[in-house]
Amino acid sequence: MNDTRSAVRAVYAGAEGRLWELLMGEQIHIDGFASSMALAAKAGVKPGLHAVDLCCCSGAGLRFLAKLHGLASGIGVDMTGEVLRQGAERNRRDGVAERIRFVQADATATGLPSASADLVWGEDAWCYVPERAALVAEAARLLKPGGTLACTDWCWGARRPAPAEADRFLAFMKFPELFSAADYASACTAAGLRVELCEDTGRFAPAIERYLADVTIQRTWDALAIIGFDQAMAQAIVGEMQHALALAKAGMLAQVMVVARKP
């Protein structure tokens, strides 16, 4: 578990994190802006809310909510100090520094007050957390009565890959394991939340196809520059992305959207 977290910190503090942001943008999740807009709509996000973004990376989700959805205040929680420092600079750049602050902490034990958030937000990042049920329970603890958990995440699809295929994908992505949609629904229910939506968005495979096109055509030079022009590494990364795409097209990987309320 600790080794997994160290590997994730190394990814987002280094070249691999910069490579993902090159391909996916500052909103470093499947389908970026379109996915965020869909999640906000499904969750019924409205102006004046206080949100906590668990595993926030550089805080793009909170900036999105602040600039476009009238977020009153937000706290981003992440364990990687480098991305939080980058996020603070971006908050100042976008004029939202007075509304958004960051806490460097374990997302399963944030230390934030109970029943303090109207909205707990997450976008394609909870897959990095080994104790995902504990993360959902922490989200439930943070929510006020009537508050909303809204997240997307990388999950196993309608069927799971064979063990060797699953292990290959998990090792490439530095994921400890993945949930399925059913696992998310069960974790929310166990945490006392009422599940309103838990489904495959259908976005995963088309998005990976676009990222592959970018890294092999339009942005090849930029990607090579990030990894020190190591062409063998570039070929290996492309190979693993093609493997992920094959799993997705076979119905084994998905981006799942979850919306749940606290009674």
Helix/strand-derived class?
Answer: alpha/beta
Let me know the average pLDDT: 95
Strand order of the largest sheet: 3-2-1-4-5-7-6
**Weakly predicted, low-confidence segments:** none
As a whole number of angstroms, the C-alpha radius of gyration is 18 Å
CATH architecture of the domain at 2-47 and 125-261: 3-Layer(aba) Sandwich
Order of helices and strands: HHHEHEHEEHEHHEHHHE
Amino-to-carboxy terminus distance: 32 Å
Largest sheet: 7 strands, mixed
Helix residue percentage? 40-55%
- What is the approximate shape? globular
Any idea of the CATH class of the domain at 2-47 and 125-261?
Alpha Beta
What is the count of helical runs? 11
Can you offer a commentary on this structure?
This protein has a domain at 2-47 and 125-261: Vaccinia Virus protein VP39 (Rossmann fold), CATH 3.40.50. Helix 1 packs across helix 2 and helix 9 packs across helix 10 (220-226). The chain is α/β, with parallel strands linked by helices and 263 residues long. The model has no long low-confidence stretch (mean pLDDT 95). It has a seven-stranded mixed sheet with strand order 3-2-1-4-5-7-6, with helices on both faces. The protein has eleven helices and seven strands.
How would you summarize this macromolecular structure in one to three sentences?
Helix content is 49%, strand content 20%. The chain has 263 residues and is an alpha/beta fold.
